[in-house]
Amino acid sequence: MRRALVPAMLPLLLAAAGCIMPDQLAQYQQQVSDVQASLEAASKSQADLAKQVTALETKIGADDPVKRSEIADISARLDQVVRQTTATADKVDQTNVRVDRLSQDVQAARDAARRAAPMLPPGGTDPSASAPGVAGAAAVGAAVASPSSSAPNPSALYASAYADFSKGNYALATQGFQEYTQKYPDTELADNAMYWIGECSFSEGSYKAAIDAFDAMLERYPKSDKAAAANLKKALAFVQSNQIGQGIEQLRFVTSNYPGTDEARIAGDRLEALGKP
Q1: Among residues 176, 251, 168, which one has the least CA distance to residue 204?
Q2: At 224, phi and psi to the nearest 5?
Q3: Most trustworthy range by pLDDT among 108-117, 140-149, 166-175
Q4: Over the stretch 228-240, which tens digit does the pLDDT of each residue have?
Q5: Which of these, 7, 115, 192, 216, has the minimum number of CB atoms within 10 Å of its CB?
Q6: CA nearest 232: which of 201, 260, 206, 270?
Q7: CA distance 180 to 158
């Protein structure tokens, strides 16, 4: 749901937790860098393709069928790039959730260490503490090593569904995302999960199911940062299912309601390709 990353908080968490999970923290730091680089590259690709479309439209006449076909091809490539950008942004969201979870685990570990302190004999020494801070570190390590228990892990469930989607296992991905939205409707990634249910149906060519899924997501999470993408894919689903009139109306909705976004630009390119600027 959120896009803002704060990489600087990772070293702070490391300092707060002492020697707790340095490998995990280093891994998350690398993930932050990787997804930011991917997002920048995808955004650059979108900008470059959009410039190509604009240059062609300026250079040629609107009635040249050959050139119009070329513009339509570039617009289709733009659609693919926006999907890749959405996927990259989703990785950003997942990394944010992992960082939040890690922060919660560190806080839980601190609480466990504080609770363990009064259990020492008055004036006595904890026999397991061979060096200052070892007992506290052990308590913290135990708390972080077994964070909360037997409940299903929402991050693992979401990651599994997303992995299925990435591999083209759309039926399994849909099941996983549906389970996630049912069990964790108030989490940061719940709107993302509903969005990917629509993407699964779209990828399978089930355009009516895709439209229904995007509508359900927009109804439940109207302020989601994936609202523009959901409305755009809904428009493309109309066009793909030969409901051109509704598709044009939906594309115009995107351009008017999300001005200045990549989705609005792509919607405008599609309207141009359909001869309905």
Answers
A1: 168
A2: -60, 150
A3: 166-175
A4: 999 999 999 999 9
A5: 115
A6: 270
A7: 7
101 to 155, 156, 216, 237: CA distances (angstroms):
9, 12, 28, 36
Residue in the structure block whose two tokens are 């999960």: 193
Q: Which two tokens stand for residue 78?
A: 């733009």
CB 218 within 8 A of CB 185: no
With bands split at pLDDT 50, 70 and 90, how would you rate the model's confidence at 157?
Answer: very high
Q: Residue 88 contacts by C-beta under 8 Å, 6 or more apart in sequence?
A: 35, 38, 39, 42
Three-state DSSP state, 257: helix
How many CB atoms lie under 10 A from the CB of residue 163? 13
- Calculated CA dihedral for residues 146, 102, 3, 190, nearest 10 degrees: 20
pLDDT single digits (tens) 165-220: 999 999 999 999 999 999 999 999 999 999 999 999 999 999 999 999 999 999 99
DSSP 17-77: HTTS-HHHHHHHHHHHHHHHHHHHHHHHHHHHHHHHHHHHHHHS-TT-HHHHHHHHHHHHH
Of the ranges 41-45, 64-68, 133-137, the best mean pLDDT one = 41-45
Question: Pick from 273, 240, 238: which is nearest to 253 by CA?
Answer: 238
The pLDDT of residue 153: 87
Q: How many CB atoms lie within 10 A of CB 193?
A: 26
pLDDT digits (tens, 9 = 90+) for 26-50: 555 556 556 656 656 665 666 666 6
DSSP character string of 185-218:
TTSTTHHHHHHHHHHHHHHTT-HHHHHHHHHHHH
CA distances (Å), 180 to each of 83, 152, 203, 214, 226, in order? 21, 10, 20, 16, 17
